[in-house]
Amino acid sequence: MQKPFYFKIFLVAALLLGGNIFAKENNHPVEESKGSLKAEIKEFIGHHLLDSHDFTLYTVDEEKNEHVGFPLPVILWDNGLKVFSSSKFHHGASVAEVDGNYYALNHGKIVKTDAEGTISYDEHHHATNEKPLDFSITKNVVFILLVAILMFFMFTKMAKSYKNSALPKGMGRLLEPVVLYIRDDIAIPNIGKKHYKRYMSYLLTVFFFIWIINLLGLTPLGVNVTNNIAVTLALALLTYLITTFTANKNYWKHIFWMPDVPVFMKLVLAPIELLGTIIKPFSLMIRLYANITAGHVVLMSILGMMFIFKNWIGSPLSFGLAFALSLLELLVAALQAYIFTMLSALYFGSAVEEHHDH
Amino acid sequence: MEIPTIVGAGLIVIGAGLGIGKIGGSAMDAIARQPEASGKIQTAMLIAAALIEGIGFAALFAS
Amino acid sequence: MDKLIEQFSFGLFFWQLLLFVGLLLLLRKFAWKPILNAVEDREDGIKNALEAAENAKREMQNLQADNDKLLKEARAEREAMLKEAREIKEKMISDSKEQAQAEGDKIIKQAQAAIESEKKAALADIKNQVGNLSVEIAEKVIKEQLSDKDKQLKLVENLLGDIKLN
Fold this sequence. Notes:
The complex is a heterotrimer of chains A (358), B (63) and C (166).
Chain A: H1 2-23, H2 37-49, E1 54-61, E2 66-71, E3 73-77, E4 81-85, E5 96-98, E6 101-106, E7 109-113, E8 133-134, H3 139-164, H4 171-191, H5 196-217, H6 229-246, H7 249-256, H8 263-309, H9 314-352
Antiparallel strand pairs in A: 1-2, 3-4, 3-8, 5-6, 6-7
Helix pairs in contact in A: 2-8, 3-5, 4-5, 4-9, 5-9, 6-8, 6-9, 8-9
Chain B: H1 5-33, H2 38-62
Helix pairs in contact in B: 1-2
Chain C: H1 2-7, H2 10-145, H3 149-165
């Protein structure tokens, strides 16, 4: 029973690694001023945090623009759908020409440019070029998709194992306590026994999604999906939408016309409460984003220190520190998933809370 | 003289750190007093800490 | 904040929303519902089994109590029956004793009556026998004496004289 599943994982890994052979490129050297080591590390961290349009596993030679990885499709909406391979950018070194339009990469973003690839900047060092709507399958999208597929197979397999016996087999043994924990310690206490079933699917999906994708961010693959504000915004938006659309009369009454307070206070409280409904998911979004970003920045900075020290005391020290921090990040990966799920459940609970006599 | 934003960031970190520290300390006291309620206390502690953390991060990004 | 807005990628937002909602719907249909239902069924099953066991235990206890009660009743009944039997026995014995007494008395009376009547009969018989014997003796005596006429006449006269005496 287990073999096909492992085989799938093996297949995915083989696909990921096998891509190297075909995708090895040796392209135009970049003319970049080589700064000090510190600046280089800083730039590397900055680059690491960004999404990218091609899947780079590691860089062989920065000078020669030699990377190991494979290109991903770029999908643009710029007066019509434009689809091309990201290999046309040559890792940002060249301008891609599609249907007479020229596109270039500027800090991981695609901007419209001319044939020479000139990018004009304003006083805040932001590019002023026109930005086409970018629906590209970026590295992060690939990983979201991978995690989605992985979760789908993992949990449908677990669901199937219940058909034969009351106890799950294989992965289910590991996952069932987590599922039960979410149900018994997150959903039921916060939402209540009456309504919790409606929200279980969302809570479970969001918990496992954030957890798995956070854990993947700690692998040397170098993806950090949840450190994109777009991803956390999408998740927080779903929490907000579910809260808003499943809320009962009591919830809205407490927002617009707080009971048992003087009329003047009601008028004061209404905008505050209304703002609160938006601040709640906003804080969810910022928290997840900031925790993962901060974790990655600190971890990579400490790793970078290894190359700055380059001696027998500093480097092992920073290695040990990085190791300890990695363990902490493992905890943070689960903790942030837990907090996100917990607070979502709390907001859902407030949305369906029955009227109590105060 | 303009105060650099990094000073503001430092202040935010001090404030958030103090707040989370206070929550953690109080939670420890509470657990010591009622070890049987440690599960509930931990949950409440995490939520409170997360809320402060959220505000801290929001302020950090605003600075 | 500017950095955040600068970094925001609409494409990633779009894909995340699309893929996540897709995953959510798929998992809800194919994973969460079956898993949660199975777990719930199992928990219900365990709960029911526990309840059934508890009920069985209680029933068992009731049964035990019933049994004890029945046993006690049976014992009491047996006791009562034994007592009754003993009473009946005693009564029967006394009754039969009385009856026997009465019977015995009756038999004795009958026997006495029989003895009386036998005695009378015997007496009567003896009288007859004695009469006959006396008659025979008398005959023999008379036969001897009556060998002559005078003696006969004298005897007749004597006899007659006796009869008169009778």
